[in-house]
Amino acid sequence: MIYTQEVAAEVLQVIDETLLSEKEAMKKKVSNNLDYKIRASIHAYVFETEKRKNIIDFIISKSLKGKRIEDLDPLFRNLLRVGVYEMHFKGVHPALATDSIVRIVKKRFGERLASLANAVLRRAEHVNIEEELEKIKKKDKIKYLALKYYHPEWYVKYAIDLLGEEEAIKLMIANNEKQAIYIRVNELKTSIEAVRRYLEQNKVEIVETPLPDVFKVVNYERAPAALEWHNKGYYVIQDLASAYVTHILNPEPDDVVLDLASAPGLKASHMAAFMENKGKIIAVDNSRDRLERMKAKMKVLGVKNIIYKLADGTKFFYGDVDKVLVDPPCSSTGSFRNYPC
Description:
The chain has 16 helices and eight strands. By secondary structure, it is α/β, with parallel strands linked by helices. The strands form two sheets. The protein has a four-stranded antiparallel beta sheet. A four-stranded parallel beta sheet has the order 7-6-5-8. The mean pLDDT is 93.
């Protein structure tokens, strides 16, 4: 477990210092050769700690006694975050959570900071979150809601202005629910029934959705993204709402489709399947790096009818096309559940 805590803190440090998503930060610090169970454990620690970072930092700040959390060494700060996450939100006994973090800090920083970590975490153990939130509620309703439901204050203000307080709270509660996993069959390489059988054989429990080529994952022993057929491109992990787009657009084999802001390309690969790898998909994106990653992904998925264009989609002109897909960059507030950082 100590390995998981330490690496999770390192990933959280990368997020702090680079503003990368947790997925990209994981790529930098966690080897693909690691056992999938260890990778899953690290990811869970990172995701769940990052999601609750505001309330975790509040608890740490209450426990620092004269120091500011912003002034702490970034790795040390994130080790404290992992410890507080364990004792307050994961159900690990506080003494065990404290002991593990103190041992890591001693190894990485020495006795002085190990003593500080021990003192801070022992004080953090006794912070009564509900009592502290009630005090804040009387003074600052926005801050209270932000801490209670693990959302940034700007998000709380925005949601209340848009929806009203009652609906905003419902939205934040929904954001904190477990992320649903959907599998979209890549019919360029296999059939829906073959994927169904493969998943069942690998003890992935699925149910049908309104889309024939998309399954919802109910339960699994090994994550579908870690299975061989996912790595070979027989299926992809894609949200149901994202998969609906291609069904609505309904591109046909001889169509020329303009796909603006195309990378990372899940919708483009879905369209290619509808089009039986015929016709043309003009994939436009303004990021060379994202386009290169998209090309590599499309090769795995067996997509052959894409023309890649590095360009600004707001200024790009191709000529006559049959259909246009526009999935522009946005506030990403609708994906808060999946990407809290």
